[in-house]
User: Fold this.
Amino acid sequence: MKIITVIGARPQFIKAAAVSRVLRQANSGVQEMIVHTGQHYDPNMSDVFFTELDIPTPHANLGVGGGTHGQNTGRMLEALEAEMLKVRPDWVLVYGDTDSTLAGALAAAKLHIPVAHVESGLRSYNRRMPEEINRVLTDHVSELLFTPTETATDNLGAEGLTGSKVIQVGDVMYDAVLHYRQSAKAPRDVNLPPRFALSTLHRAENTDDPYRLAQIIEGLRAISASLPVVLPLHPRTRKLLQAGSFDLTGIHIIDPVGYLEMIWLLDRCELVVTDSGGLQKEAYFFKKPCLTTRDETEWVELVQHGVNILVGANSEHIASAFEGQAWQSGDFTKPLYGHGDSSEKILAALKQA
Ligand code: UD1
Ligand code: UDP
Assistant:
């Protein structure tokens, strides 16, 4: 069975690393070709993951990145179609909800190549998020929908996506953590405080709105008065912070780190403050409470279990949630994201389909 895996953004490299490892196992019967759209292109946003996580060298890199959503998606669509026509795969595998996900799914569906969507069924019900558009459309053109949680399975059911094509496999990011955590390593050349909160900040709805961005920065500064905040900064946020006049005093800003460094930081931090989807779950895997700087989350089960507090982009909410310490009493005991065998389940389903 020939599979084209379409990836292009940081979280997709991590998810694909876990699944690709299983697809490459002897007797899998799978020949996987990775196509990198080029959506993320800085060495610390792309190459580092291929090297550290032993992801096979992409069969092609389309070099599409840095544009608007329309430019990125359109250029990817055209270039992906050409790759798919050359390779004629039996399946196209896509991950998550980025512009690369949608372009891969659409290119394949229009060529009548079946699409398998990993991390299917997530919904924020906020159509202003580019990711929401990407994930809804991808789900509706996919032949196999691999959901991470019961909520995701139910979300699909509410849109009429039911039956044997929906398979709840758990979360491949849990597979990744279990596999790579023994290789975690300290970030090089950075002076870290002994105790710290780990933060990331890149979501368009926060970074592209100067008021929300300023509020989150102020919230992080308030936390850093008692617990230093370490912030590996996404390049889009760095550019915006450099262009504005933000007071960043007390926040330890570092360059984006590789995944092995990130899980080292997750293991040692006391708290996570983020607008990242992936990091909210990783906080749970490492039993670390999370303040989420968004108005809603797709990972609702974390909020229900008291381990994740939605603080929005409001400096007072961020500071008062931190000071209120409700985040210290959540329940981390439930296997909310499966048992770390999602990749095996995906392979089994692809072989059976
Ligand atoms: C994308 C995803 C988002 C995901 C995030 C993961 C979409 C719509 N969004 O957002 O869901 O959470 O990736 O990190 O696909 N840039 C660089 N170097 C890079 C990559 C990006 O400088 O290697 C800068 C460029 O100015 C670029 C901007 O960041 O225009 C935004 O990049 P883009 O990939 O469009 O969106 P992300 O914010 O990374
Ligand atoms: N991550 C990383 N280095 C960083 C920041 C994040 O390796 O400097 C990892 C993080 O641990 C998680 C994934 O990237 O596995 C999350 O990606 P991101 O936050 O960029 O996207 P999202 O999950 O929000 O789509």
Summary: Residues 231 and 253 are 5 Å apart (CA to CA).
